[in-house]
Amino acid sequence: MKVTATLAALASISAVTAAPSGGPGRHGPGGHHGPKGKYPGLDVLAKRAGLQYFGTAIDNVVLNNTQYTSIAHNKSEFGQVTPSNGMKWMFTEPERGVFNWTAALEIVKPARKARQLTRCHAFVWHTQLPAWIDHTNWTKPELVSILENHIKNEARAFKDDCIAWDVVNEAFNEDGTYRETIFYKVIGKEYIELAFKFARKYTPRKTMLYYNDYNIETVNNKSLAVAELVKDFQRRRIPIDGVGLQAHYTVGRSPSYQQQMDVMKMFNDLKMEVAMTELDVRQPTLPETQEMRIQQAEAYRDAVKACRDAKNCIGVTVWDFWDPVSWVPYTFPGQGNACLWDDNFNKKEAYYYISDMLRE
Ligand code: XIL
């Protein structure tokens, strides 16, 4: 899987980290040369602007890189963390009924120590499943009981850690129809409500239960399908508290500030809390030009600005902050440079655009 690919990339990463890191002065044609106090950290600024947190995903593959971990667990930059992989089914229940929290705890433990909040990701998703589960020979009751047992054990393992759980991830196609996952094929669309019921049964009442997806950051067929799901749940008293907008964007194609505001308003009208759960803005081609860097900075700024301004958006999480560990080049070959920190741990224009906007 990709984690192995990332591990293979580690050799090159250690070479990269030896390079000196530049300060703000190296960046920003707009003159982002201000005193250090101007940039106290993204989480500090986000909280001052009224958000609950600014966070990051953290991956296990670079936890031996102290330059990486010192930023990842720096509470001034990131008041919240999400394990990029460690809470997924293939790592947490690699054999039926055999649970393993090692990868998740490698991130959760330092987060506890640093007093960072944790978003937990994800109970039910159609990829990164262990091989033992990924076939359709199950009967419906068997797979329902597997689902319940998985959610029960994982919810209990992290019961005091999770401010929110992504209960179901990516259940819809772009046209708003249900994605034909293993759970859909065996259980039917009720797998979604069952997952939320189980999540409510086994998590503390204060844990927010989210539906999470990508390409729902504008009002479109997919986000309207999510809104319908929410309405249906509310009519039938099935628990759901929030909608996660993954926000995986591409330079030149990212949604506008207003489009993001509109979709968050749509969910606000349904009393749904929202969060930007996996924000990144990738370059569609590489190498990038300075103009593309500025466009990226504007897209990052507009996303965070929309979250700040929307009544129901509680925080923003970037899907890792450092380019060498971004998922983008592995998933979209030829694309990349999607994060806020470059290969040499220099903060990009986007970092300063977000900070300046939050300071307004
Ligand atoms: C990605 C991870 O970052 C990668 O390391 C892994 O190989 C694949 O998954 N949407 C999600 C995340 O909800 O779980 C995905 O994370 C990125 C897309």
UniProtKB/TrEMBL annotation:
GO molecular function terms attached to this record: endo-1,4-beta-xylanase activity
Known EC number: 3.2.1.8
Pfam families cross-referenced by the UniProt entry: Glyco_hydro_10
Keywords of the record: Carbohydrate metabolism, Glycosidase, Hydrolase, Polysaccharide degradation, Secreted, Signal, Xylan degradation
Principal subcellular localisation of the protein: secreted
TM regions (residue ranges): none
GO BP, sorted A to Z: xylan catabolic process
Signal sequence range: 1-18
InterPro entries named in the record: GH, GH10, GH10_dom
Segments of this protein annotated with the region Disordered: 18-39
Residues annotated as domain GH10: 45-357
Cellular compartments annotated: Secreted
Pathway assigned to this chain's UniProt record: Glycan degradation; xylan degradation
GO cellular component: extracellular region
Catalytic activities: Endohydrolysis of (1->4)-beta-D-xylosidic linkages in xylans
Entry's family note: Belongs to the glycosyl hydrolase 10 (cellulase F) family.
Name of the molecule in the record: Beta-xylanase
Species of origin: Sporormia fimetaria CBS 119925
Organism taxonomic ancestry: Eukaryota, Fungi, Dikarya, Ascomycota, Pezizomycotina
